[in-house]
Design brief:
mainly alpha; rod-shaped
Length: 138
């Protein structure tokens, strides 16, 4: 039992003394529980330390390798697309060149046909004699 002097009772009041005693008891109980929880299991208390999960160095190396592989594949596919466009462009240019040659041949054919038609309708051409070979040089 705790004894109090008359000066304490009159100065603070009896209720204040009881409150401080209750606080001291609660703090002592909390300290006891904390000491026990660090060494043994306490009912209705979780004593688990959660640590963040991290990747190991091997896993990080594997992930980095996969990323490098994916970036390399993307680079190669972009290069292949450019090459395929180049082949298509060369094919179209070849077609254009072939069509230009064909057009020039058709222009020459047209000129031949128009000259033959004009020579049949021309007076001078109709009065000309047909050429014959008179002989060969020895």
């Amino acid at each position: 039992m705790v004894t109090y002097s008359s000066a304490m009772v009159t100065r603070f009041g009896l209720s204040y003394i009881h409150q401080t005693e209750n606080k001291n008891k609660k703090e002592k109980q909390r300290d006891k529980i904390m000491r026990e929880s660090s060494s043994t299991w306490v009912r209705n208390r979780n004593i688990v330390r959660y640590t963040p999960k991290t990747l190991g160095s091997v896993s990080q190396g594997v992930i980095l390798g996969i990323l490098v592989l994916v970036v390399g594949l993307i680079y190669v596919t972009q290069g292949t697309k450019a090459t395929s466009y180049d082949y298509e462009l060369n094919e179209i240019e070849d077609n254009i060149a072939e069509l230009e040659v064909r057009k020039n041949d058709l222009v020459v054919e047209k000129e031949k046909l128009t000259s033959v038609a004009m020579s049949k309708n021309n007076e001078v051409a109709t009065t000309m004699e047909t050429g014959t070979v008179s002989g060969y040089a020895d």
